[in-house]
Queue: 3 jobs
Job 1
Amino acid sequence: MAGPEHMYERIASVLRDKMIMGELGPGDRLPSQDDLVEQFGVSRMAIRQAMDILENEGLIDRTQRLGAFVRRREPLIRRSALHYLSSPGAPFAEEALAAGRIPRYSHNSYPERASIEVAQRLKISIGDEILRTDYISYGNDEPMMLVHSYEPLAITGGTVIERPEDPGPYIAAGIVARFTAIDMRPTLINEHVRARMPRPSEKDALQLRPGTPVFVITRTAFAGDIPIETADIILDSDRYELDYPIKIEPESTLPTTEGP
């Protein structure tokens, strides 16, 4: 256990390794504080600090009197590329079912005026009319994802896709199929991912444990040079993992460099 870390970090590392190796499985109770004090020859304070680290990493849950338990965790894996197929099906539902959860979602669409940030993303004027749609996605009735989508009514207003969740041929069809229907097929979708601590409304909506950060995916879809939709996708980092497959072109398609 040599190294520059504090002793409580080393203790956390030993317990973390036991979880990785399967010696401590989901739902298993960790040794008591007294047992860990004796095992490592340290103070109770060092053990509590080690438990703090593991709890903050989302690896354990602690309950008063009962002790610490390895957290049961079956995250949804979001494979970004599958969300933007011409016929995507129901990507969230498939991700939820793959993790053993029953999916459902709620939605609400309403007109709004573009804020500074949304206007910049959509390359429109501040205050221009947009349609905002808010989604909450659930797995086993637990909220897991928030989406705030913004579409310029100068493009979608009066078309068959103006309201994305209205009954009709394009209900829940995904942005590729929807915008293709009005001859604005997306040619590029950009996702920018960052992590931050949740805002109070996000913490409440996602029912987050204290100290849990969120993934924020800022998405903007383009048809040529024209932004046609932008969205904020907010994920509970304790319930989600992100997967971004990157396809490498075959060597035969790469440009060659010829000598003089």
Job 2
Amino acid sequence: MHQCHLKYLFRNLATLLLLCFLSIAIAILSAVIASAQTLEGAAQQQPQDGRPTVVAPPERTPAVVARPSELECSGQIEAAPVSTGLEIVGAQQEQEQRVFAEGDYLFIGGGAQQGLRAGQELSVVRPRGQFRSPLSAKRGSLGIFTQEVGRVRIVELRGEVAVALVNQSCDSILLGDLLRPVPQRVAAVRRPETNLERFASPTGRQTGRIVLSRDAREMISKDQVVFIDLGAEDNIKAGDYLTIFRPVGTGNITRFRDKEITSNAKRGFESERFRGGKFSNQSQRVRNPQDDTFSETVNTPEIKERRPAMPRKVVGEVVVLSVQARTATAVITRVSQEVHTGDYVESQ
């Protein structure tokens, strides 16, 4: 009986080993077939002359000079605002809030009779009045400063009222804001950057000034929107590059005193025992080195008055986004330091 059990056990073990061997053989054969197919496909992709195929990387989307937040919310100083007669007259939650933003439902005074239709997008603008600047050499008004505060999409028409959903907010939207067709703007493709020449000589081309920033800041930097007093009348076009510069020693927001704060020497510095400490380490040189240490020193205004013409200081670069009659809206693309309202711009 015992021998019968052993025979049965050996028979099952042999069957199990045979099955394992067959599984391994099938796996190896499948791998060989797959490898052969891969090599065959690669050979078919090779050109007839036997040279390897070069696969080019996918093309990258060209970088642009402005993001949508700058391009679509820039605002402008325009000669005359476009009037459509469309106004925000109410909101779904007007009893709970006075300012509105993305996701809020607004009511527009106008329906199908004003040409509105479901799905239409409109720009929300806020004219702020005539803009004049003492920084500009141009006389009179430069135009009407108009903010772009958002965009809405018409979702439903209800008689003489249209229901709109705010799908983009650049600033708080208020009742009374106006609506107009969405402007068609395309940001220029960013050109390859070169070193910003900090002391570049003038080109002799058109010059103007930064008269305002979008957020009314006096110190501005990269990617911020500014308004310049050069426009269509000065042959400025969207996509133009301009250099931002200022004369050396001008343009600072904070004024520093030109007169030195210490004298060259003062009696009483030294002690009774240790004679010394007579010279200040913050003073200018004496006018005549042969004179006494308490004699008159040179001063900063004197040096500036008799020095030759200084190189101008290049502080950045802007690209024009849109152009109006007397002004243009631009975005700062490069800076070497902070930019000030009132800095000069020059066409490149």
Job 3
Amino acid sequence: MEQTGVEAAAVGLREAVDRLLELDLGLISGADLAGLFAELEAQRRRLESVDHALLVALGERGLAGDFGRTGVGDLLGELVRLAPGEARVRVRAARDLGPRRDLGGVVLGPVFVRVAAAQRDGTISAAHARVIAECLAAIPASLSVEVAGPAEQFLVEQAQHFDPRQVAVIGRRLLVTLDPDGGEPRDEAQHRARGYGIVQRGSGEWVASGRFSDDTAAVWTAILDAVSAPQPAADGLADQRTPAQRRHDAMLELGLRLLRSGELPDAGGVPTTVLLSLHGEDLADATDLGDVGGGDAMVRIGTGATISRLAALRLAEQCELFTTVFDRAGAVLCAGRTRRLASPVQRRVLAARDGGCCFPGCTRPPSWCQAHHVLAWLAGGATDIDNLVLVCGFHHREFERLGWVVRIHNGVPE
């Protein structure tokens, strides 16, 4: 298509959307509204095919390099601010459903030609296409040549009657029918599919996802069952956490214990450390962990993601930090390792004095406890025995929030 044709197509699309946006939907009958929505959805699905062709063309032209980007997915972040995960999904879909060329430059059909045709017609969605592609990719290689085409056609037909989740169920049943013995052994399948990750969504929420092998699942269920047991009630303070919340807190407690152990391998040639980057005014405003007023300030960690300042201050009580402080213009004011942790000798003294968690009625041993500053470190509290008490992870998080305070009286915490 010539440049003028490209411009005409883009202008026509924009004008059509403008007309739709100008419609007074309150004057349209219910039947017409339903018909308009169905037609709009069909065109939305057809645009996926345009997207596939465009992404293939961007890759063939090598435009990523012209923009100083490493690939088409990286280029999409530059051009239209797509998140890396979404960019990868769209590039993968274009690889499976967009046009291809052989080594001689001859245009070939898509990898999944029937799926691509149905999407071009607007009869299946991008979610349908992903489900079908995943199912077809799971067909054993020994059967693929013979059954892949009929299986693809069957799933495309089902996708015109069922939603993607239902099509996924149909696909799993199809795989069992095609290969009743299950293909590769369970252990090998789990090993190939294993994975784990923690990602931060646009809202700031952190989400963990992955697939565990049998042995990994057995190890972690045993650990979490032991560490996430409900804490005993004391003076009316019962453990109100849900089982999921207790398991989450157990993961935090286990991580802090591992960081304190000194047994982690070096990262980049230095001991594994929590890296924090914050602005000078945030540090100056911080007085103690109860400073809720400044809780919305964000602190950048070593991966480039952000956490709240209050979360950073909680970590500061228990982790060795490398802190970089910036001014408003982004210049570095200071950088260095900030030691707030009790030394091994101090922890032994605390263990002898406190015997474990100091909260009334708690029986957690010293090895499960954290050294808490009575007067917060950022408020000038020293990392000295007469300013430290042992508190388990649960009570460390909860006692101040519920209005309890701790103090040293005659050298003993109460």
